[in-house]
Amino acid sequence: MEGSGQQSIGVPTPSAAQALPPDEGTSSALDGYDGAVRNGSAANYTYPFADVALLQVFKLLIIPCYALVVLVGVFGNYLLLYVICRTRKMHNVTNFFIGNLAFSDMLMCVTCVPFTLAYAFNPRGWVFGRYMCYLVFLIQPVTVYVSVFTLTAIAVDRYYATVHPLKKRISVAACAYVLTGIWLLSCGLVAPAVAHTYHVEFRDAGLTICEEFWLGQETERLAYAYATLLLTYVLPLSAVCVSYLCISVKLRNCVAPGHRTRDQAEAQRARKRKTFRLVALLVAAFGACWLPIHVFNVLRDIDIRLINKRHFLLIQLLCHLCAMSSACCNPFLYAWLHDRFRTELRKMLTCHRRIGIRANHCATASVVL
Fold it and tell me: In terms of Cα–Cα distance, which of 144, 228, 227 is closest to 182?
């Protein structure tokens, strides 16, 4: 299959199985693809879409699930951003990282989900025009990579704050540079995929596709796909695991000074158990949400026949849905499970309800997530 790693973000249209040779007006940049289709060498491209009807059977189940992901992801991350922006005492490095994560997750929900569903279920394929084809296929993976790299930065930041508390933390200015670097790195990683993305119109069939084609560059495509897998999943997951493992060991070996009563000792053990559970949830959510789509892509790249052609698109959509669900998990794991954040949010909401009292006149507590 002449696809690439970016298809882990945007799902190809099932109508591509019905693809016909492009009209003579198609851009000359697609001459290679045009000839491949006419000669029948694009069979691998049409192979996975042999049974589009199966996807339609699950349409009424898939769309509500995606809608729930968008609703929870956008609303949860918006509240998180709102509290961070409106509470001055929360303006610290850790919360800026979390705010960047919330923003990228919101953008991921808005760009990845609606366009993916419309593209997958519309019999006319891509209906949003040439400009939106390239823009969406740029924004979709960028937001995903920003989320992954920001999760890694949060893990490393927490590692230094917990394991090396006496070391100087990075400044807000340095944090801004790190966040800028994360966005630039994400854009750089997406550049090869966007360079091989084409908007192709099959006018006779009333079909338009927006896909990546690496015709004659199979080695380069595989190198890019596996490099992306390494940089956006294997290394970040390793960094998150190591950071939180070190944090867990540090907390387990930490002993409070002085004589403690039985109640105090039990309270400390309860706090440690809660922290360990949270750490386990953070690592498990990161790995579990993104594992299915990466396994799917690896199997597709090794041999597309390893995936049943009748269930190909359905499996791809379900894996994509699992990956998008990370946008729902992050607000709860990085904010909602923290008592201080919930307290601050309740305080702000209560403050807004008071008649005649402006919200910014309410006292705020110091919150560090």
Answer: 144
